[in-house]
């Protein structure tokens, strides 16, 4: 039989579980004394069977502090109203009763893309150390195929909601995701689009989870196979949106762990010096074409000739100052514009960042900045 303790140990919270479950406090940056118990928010938990499965081994706390071992404050949520939930999931009522018996808050109608406005204020006030969302799925539309763009939008909105401010002021400092917190999102095999996925698909056919997270300043810290069988042994049954009966294939699923980007800004004094940067696992590689004006009309023969090797060296340093690494730079075009008479040279660039949160939008902004900076 699968080891149930192995399932909850995945949360890296140093949970009070079976004795054979090794604490991973150090990995999660939670070693030493804490002023409060770790807080876990579970989003979109359908029939609440995932939250119930955690109860089988977790030592829960209502906030009174730590007694023996490590207590955890759990909040379980679902997207549906209570009425719709009970009508859609036969097991929901018994799961809710088990959660209530342990003092676990159960919240209905919580939108993962709008946590601040749909989760009760008294529950959200302290933020969360872990935000967990298993198998997110955009609600299917009647007589319409579920478009991959909608799934990406759900992921993008969830990450944005996780880092959103919970203060009622425009520049509030507190966020749903507490300082040092992590977002744990599990997707079916091949959906994430990372280089470490259990099934590699064309990137265009994936949910592009790193790009969606990067738009909110989050980087991929870790990637784990989701321990489905241990959780199933504890009562968890992924069943799709509103228990449609389509028990999707959840084997070989992957859990993606995201944290806020954290790095030491570039300076001449820090080059080559070890820092406390949070490295990005499987950083996205971007390829962009940029056309530079290397000589303007009337300047021919009066300016220093454009040197490709010097440009590559300067570009490498320029990107390094932004914590971005240039992996290739090749010429793919060279022409004089028929109207402006300016001499253009096209370069094909490949770059990535080992520490910064990257997205398509940020890559485009970097490329445009290169064009402006290096064009004559």
TrEMBL record:
Single biological process term from Gene Ontology: rRNA base methylation
Membrane-spanning parts: none
GO MF annotation list: rRNA (uridine-N3-)-methyltransferase activity
Protein name, per record: 25S rRNA (uridine-N(3))-methyltransferase BMT5-like domain-containing protein
Domain 25S rRNA (uridine-N(3))-methyltransferase BMT5-like, first and last residues per copy: 41-237
Organism, as annotated: Kipferlia bialata
Cellular compartments per GO CC: cytoplasm
Pfam families per record: BMT5-like (PF10354)
Recorded superkingdom: Eukaryota
InterPro entries attached to this UniProt entry: BMT5-like, Fdx_antiC-bd_sf
């Amino acid at each position: 039989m699968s080891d149930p303790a192995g399932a909850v140990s995945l949360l890296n919270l140093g949970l009070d579980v079976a004795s054979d479950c090794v604490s991973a406090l150090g990995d999660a940056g939670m070693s030493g004394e804490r002023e409060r118990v770790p807080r876990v928010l579970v989003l979109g938990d359908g029939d609440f069977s995932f939250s119930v499965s955690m109860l089988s081994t977790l030592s829960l706390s209502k906030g009174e502090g730590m007694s023996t071992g490590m207590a955890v404050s759990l909040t379980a949520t679902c997207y549906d109203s209570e009425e719709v939930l009970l009508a859609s999931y036969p097991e929901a009522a018994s799961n809710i009763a088990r959660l209530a018996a342990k003092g676990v808050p159960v919240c209905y109608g919580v939108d993962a893309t709008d946590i601040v406005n749909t989760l009760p204020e008294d529950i959200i006030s302290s933020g969360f150390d872990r935000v967990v969302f298993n198998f997110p799925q955009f609600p299917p539309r009647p007589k319409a195929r579920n478009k991959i763009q909608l799934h990406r939008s759900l992921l993008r909105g969830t990450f944005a909601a996780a880092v959103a401010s919970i203060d009622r002021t425009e520049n509030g400092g507190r966020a749903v995701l507490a300082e040092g917190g992590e977002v744990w999102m599990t997707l079916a095999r091949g959906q994430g689009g990372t280089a470490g996925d259990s099934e590699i698909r064309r990137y265009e056919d994936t949910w592009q989870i790193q790009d969606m997270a990067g738009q909110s300043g989050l980087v991929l810290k870790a990637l784990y196979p989701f321990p489905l069988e241990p959780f199933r042994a504890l009562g968890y049954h992924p069943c799709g949106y509103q228990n449609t009966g389509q028990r999707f294939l959840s084997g070989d699923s992957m859990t993606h762990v995201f944290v806020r980007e954290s790095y030491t800004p570039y300076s001449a004094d820090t080059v080559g010096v070890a820092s406390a940067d949070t490295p990005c696992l499987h950083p996205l590689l971007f390829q962009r074409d940029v056309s530079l004006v290397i000589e303007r009309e009337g300047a021919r023969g009066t300016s220093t000739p454009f040197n490709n090797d010097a440009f590559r060296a300067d570009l490498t340093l320029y990107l390094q100052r932004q914590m971005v690494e240039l992996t290739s730079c090749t010429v793919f075009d060279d022409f004089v514009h028929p109207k402006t008479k300016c001499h253009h040279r096209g370069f094909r660039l490949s770059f990535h960042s080992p520490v910064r949160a990257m997205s398509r939008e940020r890559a485009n902004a970097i490329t445009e900045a290169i064009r402006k900076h290096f064009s004559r």
